[in-house]
Amino acid sequence: MECAQGCTFVCHYYPPCPEPELTLGAWSHSDPWFLTLLHQDQGGGLQVLHNRQWVPVRPIPGSLIVNVGDFLQIISNRRFISDEHRVAADSIGPRISTAYFFKGSQECA
Ligand SMILES: O=C(O)CCC(=O)C(=O)O
Ligand SMILES: [Fe+2]
Protein backbone atom coordinates (compact mmCIF):
# COMPACT_ATOMS: atom_id res chain seq x y z
CA MET A 1 0.00 0.00 0.00
CA GLU A 2 2.71 2.49 -0.95
CA CYS A 3 0.04 4.75 -2.43
CA ALA A 4 -1.52 5.25 1.01
CA GLN A 5 1.72 6.41 2.59
CA GLY A 6 1.46 9.98 1.45
CA CYS A 7 -2.00 10.80 2.73
CA THR A 8 -2.95 13.78 4.86
CA PHE A 9 -6.28 14.53 6.49
CA VAL A 10 -7.01 18.16 7.30
CA CYS A 11 -9.97 19.93 8.83
CA HIS A 12 -10.65 23.57 7.91
CA TYR A 13 -12.55 25.95 10.18
CA TYR A 14 -13.71 29.24 8.65
CA PRO A 15 -15.10 31.66 11.24
CA PRO A 16 -17.88 34.04 10.17
CA CYS A 17 -16.46 37.05 8.35
CA PRO A 18 -17.94 40.51 9.12
CA GLU A 19 -17.04 41.87 5.64
CA PRO A 20 -17.05 38.89 3.26
CA GLU A 21 -17.03 41.09 0.14
CA LEU A 22 -13.50 42.22 1.03
CA THR A 23 -11.82 38.85 1.27
CA LEU A 24 -11.97 35.10 0.63
CA GLY A 25 -12.03 32.10 2.93
CA ALA A 26 -9.30 30.45 0.86
CA TRP A 27 -7.47 31.99 -2.07
CA SER A 28 -7.55 30.53 -5.56
CA HIS A 29 -5.33 27.47 -5.94
CA SER A 30 -5.10 23.97 -7.34
CA ASP A 31 -4.14 21.12 -5.07
CA PRO A 32 -0.56 20.04 -5.77
CA TRP A 33 -1.00 16.36 -5.03
CA PHE A 34 -2.62 13.39 -6.73
CA LEU A 35 -6.27 13.54 -5.65
CA THR A 36 -8.32 15.23 -2.93
CA LEU A 37 -11.54 13.98 -1.36
CA LEU A 38 -13.34 16.97 0.07
CA HIS A 39 -16.42 17.39 2.23
CA GLN A 40 -17.97 20.80 2.75
CA ASP A 41 -20.81 21.50 5.14
CA GLN A 42 -24.30 22.53 4.01
CA GLY A 43 -23.37 26.23 3.93
CA GLY A 44 -21.40 25.69 0.71
CA GLY A 45 -18.81 28.29 -0.21
CA LEU A 46 -16.53 26.25 -2.44
CA GLN A 47 -16.16 27.70 -5.94
CA VAL A 48 -14.49 26.22 -9.00
CA LEU A 49 -13.14 28.12 -12.01
CA HIS A 50 -15.00 27.11 -15.15
CA ASN A 51 -14.74 29.03 -18.45
CA ARG A 52 -13.09 31.90 -16.53
CA GLN A 53 -16.02 32.17 -14.16
CA TRP A 54 -16.26 31.18 -10.52
CA VAL A 55 -19.02 28.61 -10.17
CA PRO A 56 -20.39 27.68 -6.74
CA VAL A 57 -20.16 23.98 -5.87
CA ARG A 58 -23.56 23.18 -4.45
CA PRO A 59 -23.39 21.09 -1.28
CA ILE A 60 -25.16 17.74 -1.70
CA PRO A 61 -25.86 15.91 1.58
CA GLY A 62 -23.80 12.75 1.95
CA SER A 63 -21.58 13.52 -1.03
CA LEU A 64 -17.85 14.04 -1.42
CA ILE A 65 -16.09 16.28 -3.93
CA VAL A 66 -13.17 14.80 -5.87
CA ASN A 67 -10.47 17.28 -6.89
CA VAL A 68 -7.83 16.24 -9.38
CA GLY A 69 -4.41 17.42 -8.25
CA ASP A 70 -1.46 18.78 -10.22
CA PHE A 71 0.47 15.52 -9.84
CA LEU A 72 -2.34 13.52 -11.47
CA GLN A 73 -2.56 16.12 -14.24
CA ILE A 74 1.14 15.68 -14.96
CA ILE A 75 1.32 11.88 -14.85
CA SER A 76 -1.89 11.55 -16.92
CA ASN A 77 -0.39 13.87 -19.55
CA ARG A 78 -3.32 16.29 -19.00
CA ARG A 79 -5.98 13.66 -19.53
CA PHE A 80 -7.18 14.73 -16.08
CA ILE A 81 -6.98 18.47 -15.40
CA SER A 82 -6.41 19.84 -11.92
CA ASP A 83 -9.07 22.38 -11.07
CA GLU A 84 -8.59 25.90 -9.78
CA HIS A 85 -10.78 26.45 -6.74
CA ARG A 86 -11.31 28.83 -3.84
CA VAL A 87 -13.62 29.37 -0.89
CA ALA A 88 -15.88 32.42 -0.58
CA ALA A 89 -16.05 34.20 2.75
CA ASP A 90 -19.42 34.39 4.47
CA SER A 91 -20.84 36.39 7.33
CA ILE A 92 -22.99 33.40 8.27
CA GLY A 93 -20.97 30.67 9.80
CA PRO A 94 -18.78 29.10 10.84
CA ARG A 95 -17.99 26.89 7.88
CA ILE A 96 -16.25 23.54 8.26
CA SER A 97 -14.70 21.38 5.58
CA THR A 98 -12.52 18.30 5.65
CA ALA A 99 -10.01 17.28 3.02
CA TYR A 100 -8.20 14.00 2.50
CA PHE A 101 -5.16 14.49 0.30
CA PHE A 102 -3.79 11.51 -1.59
CA LYS A 103 -0.30 12.71 -2.35
CA GLY A 104 0.91 9.80 -4.44
CA SER A 105 4.46 8.55 -4.66
CA GLN A 106 6.97 7.54 -7.29
CA GLU A 107 5.99 3.90 -6.78
CA CYS A 108 2.45 4.80 -7.91
CA ALA A 109 3.49 6.82 -10.96
O1 LIG B 1 -12.50 24.27 2.42
C1 LIG B 1 -12.71 23.90 1.27
O2 LIG B 1 -13.84 23.63 0.84
C2 LIG B 1 -11.56 23.77 0.30
C3 LIG B 1 -10.25 23.45 0.96
C4 LIG B 1 -9.16 23.29 -0.04
O3 LIG B 1 -9.27 23.69 -1.17
C5 LIG B 1 -7.93 22.60 0.33
O4 LIG B 1 -7.77 22.19 1.48
O5 LIG B 1 -7.05 22.44 -0.54
FE1 LIG C 1 -7.72 22.93 -2.41
UniProtKB/TrEMBL annotation:
The keyword Ribosomal protein does not apply. The lineage of its organism: Eukaryota, Viridiplantae, Streptophyta, Embryophyta, Tracheophyta. The keyword Translocase does not apply. This is 1-aminocyclopropane-1-carboxylate oxidase homolog 11-like. InterPro entries: IPNS-like_FE2OG_OXY, IPNS-like_sf, Oxoglu/Fe-dep_dioxygenase_dom, Plant_2OG-oxidoreductases. GO terms for molecular function: metal ion binding. Residues 3-104 form the Fe2OG dioxygenase domain. Keywords: Iron, Metal-binding. The gene is LOC116192745. Coiled coil: none annotated. Pfam families: 2OG-FeII_Oxy. It comes from the Eukaryota.
